[in-house]
Amino acid sequence: MEISGQIALVTGAGSGLGEATARRLAAAGARVAVVDRGAEAAERVADEIGGLAIAVDVSDNAAVEAAFAEVASKLGTPRIVVNCAGIGTAGRILPRDGVLPIEAFERTLRVNLLGSYIVLSHAARLMSAAEPLDADGARGLIVNTASVAYQDGQIGQAAYAASKGGIASLTLPAARELARFGIRVMTIAPGLFETAMSAGLPPEARTALEAGLPFPSRMGKPDEFALLVQQIVENPLLNGEVIRLDSAVRLAPK
């Protein structure tokens, strides 16, 4: 799919991987809806790339539906949708204080997994009603974000790994179901990246993490994630797959 001239919608686009993706798609000629829970962050990025800012909690179905309606009304049908919204949580199943973190587990799944599913569903409904873009009958692409934790989850990552595992698992069945509409579904599973979650790490912790990265032995840059999104958009045979983007890292148990 050619990016230039397309409408794109990126969630979690107020920072990190989502922001880098929104910027790269805009630079390639797309008109981008910058969706983020934080209104100020969304507006900042949208102002800088000439996009449309929308403040949305992706776990709120009605709010997501309204956001897609706004995008369709102001920009047109989004043909590229990238799910980057998510939260990083850590906590043991049996914490020392004895209080079971059931609510934290539920919240993680609501934002990361249910939120991705809600966005995917509304994106697919709009795309399926649109005209094909090429001779193959392509109508759009949805890219979700998992994590290497879905395969290599560490102690304390039960909720996070479960949420990202759900995203990885829905990739193939979603791609198979939506294939008849010409809609592709892909997932990227990033490893250790320079984001707000990693920015607060103590220097010694950062050094230890980077030492475990085979090559390159550094954290990924958000624009390297965005570059893979661009490559997925442009390569029509990429469908129904989870791609690890991780410097060949395999996370240790703890």
UniProtKB/TrEMBL annotation:
InterPro entries: NAD(P)-bd_dom_sf, Sc_DH/Rdtase_CS, SDR_fam. GO terms for molecular function: oxidoreductase activity. It comes from the Bacteria. Keywords: Oxidoreductase. It holds the Pfam family adh_short. SUPFAM superfamilies: NAD(P)-binding Rossmann-fold domains. The keyword Oxidoreductase applies. PANTHER family: 17-BETA-HYDROXYSTEROID DEHYDROGENASE 14-RELATED, SHORT-CHAIN DEHYDROGENASE/REDUCTASE. Belongs to the short-chain dehydrogenases/reductases (SDR) family. This is NAD(P)-dependent dehydrogenase, short-chain alcohol dehydrogenase family. It comes from Salipiger thiooxidans.
